[in-house]
Amino acid sequence: MFLRALISFFLLLCMGTYSSGQTLHYTVSGYVKEEATGEVLIGATVQIKELKKGTATNQYGFYSITVDPGTYTLSVTYLGYQEFTQTLELKSDLRVNVALKSKSVETSTVEIKGEAEDKNVKSTDMGSVRLSMEQIKALPAFLGEVDILKTIQLLPGVKSAGDGNTGFYVRGGGPDQNLILLDEAVVYNPSHLLGFFSVFNGDAVKDVNLIKGGMPAQYGGRLSSVLDISMKEGNDKDYHVEGGIGVISSRLTVQGPIKKDTSSFIISGRRTYIDVVVKPFLDKTSKYYGTGYYFYDLNSKFNYKISDKDRLFLSGYLGRDVFDYKNSFANFTVNIPWGNTNAVLRWNHLFNDKLFLNTSAIFSDYQFSFGASESGFDFRLFSGIRDWTYKMDFSYYPNTRHEIKFGMDYIFHTFTPSNATAKQGDVTFDLGQIKKQYAHEMALYISDDFDVTDRLRVSAGIRESYFIMVGPFDRYIHDVQGKITDTTHYAQGQTVADYGGPEPRVSLRYAINKRISLKANYTHNYQYIHLASLSSVSLPTDVWVPCSDVVKPQISDQVALGYFQNFKENTYEGSVEVYYKTMQHQVEYKEGALPTDDEKDNADNNFVFGSGRSYGAEFFLKKRLGKLNGWIGYTLSWTTRTFPDLNNGQTFYAKYDQRHDISFVSTYDLNKKWSFSLVWIYATGNAITLPVARYFIEGNVVSEYSGRDELRMPAYHRMDISATWKLKKFKRFEHSLNFAIFNVYNRQNPYFIYFDTVGSVQQGNLSIQAKQVSLFPILPSVTWNFKW
Fold first, then answer.
1. Is residue 773 packed enough to be buried (19+ CB in 10 Å), middle (13-18) or exposed (0-12)?
2. Distance CA 266, CA 311 (A)
3. How far, in Å, CA of 206 to CA of 454, rounded?
4. For 188-213, what is each residue's pLDDT tens digit?
């Protein structure tokens, strides 16, 4: 009822804005694309020059501007492309599709593509960063692999999960509080090789948008951030092949028209060959013969332009990690496969020049499995989550002062928390039935981004969400000693628990002048699914669980203020943002709990619950133009947790709390053949719990531990550099060599700390020493990249 009233209010507001006096208006609308490939351009600036009013293209390259009748100049700009202008005589609605030509880049003026000029000052967005793949590919790559997730870790407010790890934490939130989307499909585990590489193949990606705060109403289900990644659509003009051969992996991408200017495809694949490289060094008589690890992923996308008003997209992703360990002497084998599968079918429809619809049907699946066999005894542990999603997103452009979005989404979740099977020959051991949990999640939303005055712009919206867990489900009842005493059975479709509520969001921007603006936002979010983890980094063994009669939804409230200023004709962009965030119903494992403890039990019976708080300041300075460009980011922050059942109820720092976080990123184009890049990062050491004293009691060593996460690892810092040499071009064939060095000055950064015991109590020479484990020394790599 509340949402219905709000929708009515928004519609009346907009109707009143452009219908007053019954003045006649006309609309110019269309799509903005890249001329050479036919790829739509997201966020291109479309403006009526005489009125200095305009808009930006949406995720599908569509724009719409409604103005009074008259003669105007339409301007379309996008960094890295030539400006498009056309004189319009608006006597009726017009459709103007624009194809922008790429600029011939002069070495004296290099631009960072993919960013609208003045957008950081003019828009209501806070904590939002859009990156193009050109920017990401220009930075040093870890072992030759360009990585989206490692790049966003270089932004203020985004913290790394550890050395080489792609897991990330945003403004005090956990890794499960980030909504990661690939062409609208949720990616539940974005990592390969236990987190050292991301699942996103840069050759298949077109656009990356990170939202740290002020999450728009069309996004929901997470507390901290949105990472929205769009895949390329495929060149509808000509066929192209590109790829690369690196130290540990190779990749290949093929794209082209199915029917020129009407339909196109892109298929991109990548595979590591660690297993192939190691195999020759393992003799067939070796007890470890057959041991190996590799990962692969495959992206594909097809699109078809049915008419000027209708377009279909079909995209998919398949990725797997496979680890096999074999010890033939001990007759022992281990097999650990895990990975994601996504598929998305989308339909774009233009009802008229002001109303745009995107409808999506989405399948997302993440599965993890651990299998071990020894002397005829077979054991298997597995978990996962599977979603079926349907979405409808409308964009309505009544006039130049309003951009209205509204829609709905529905998700059917199937959770498979940790389950296990075991057998010895023909004997099967009773580890309980295979447990699954089912839930429905749905939401309605509406938002309006509008100009109140020429200086004040407001983006206000609300999302009404609802979550219901349903049977079949068995709830195991425990006594005070933890023994199961009873079971409550819920039949298929029967409600186990339900939650929901309104999620308001509002952002304000006040322009002091053309180069300076002040911003503020407030967001209230619900999260109904949780990632239970025992590690300080994201691992495949982490378990996704839903809200239930035991687990309540996570809730956050975040307030942020910001100052934004551009310098020297938009050559430099600067910002300062401060934020304060509270989080309710946070989830952790009980002290001493293990994921396998839920055999013949419910996973959530091993959880404890508490609250969190995070606050800080983020400083950002970026140079956008010239031979030398890049950015400097600094974050000062505090993140705490309070759990009545942990640390004696006392507040403690979260394991990913880092007081100081600095990143320096720079790229330099020397000439047409050589370009260079450098990254340097520094971060306060992660919080850790360690023994602080040891006692001898009756001949035994007893350790006394610090408070939870009370101590700190040594600080983390590292420098990476790279150079790209563009080799001689042969007609349409282009190729280059990329030379990179990871950890240039060989910093021994801590990965974890353990204690080594030497001697014994009986001999009176017992010595216990703390030792640090570091993963990566200095690592050079070379990659050959090619394009045809």
1. exposed
2. 16
3. 33
4. 988 887 667 888 988 899 889 999 87
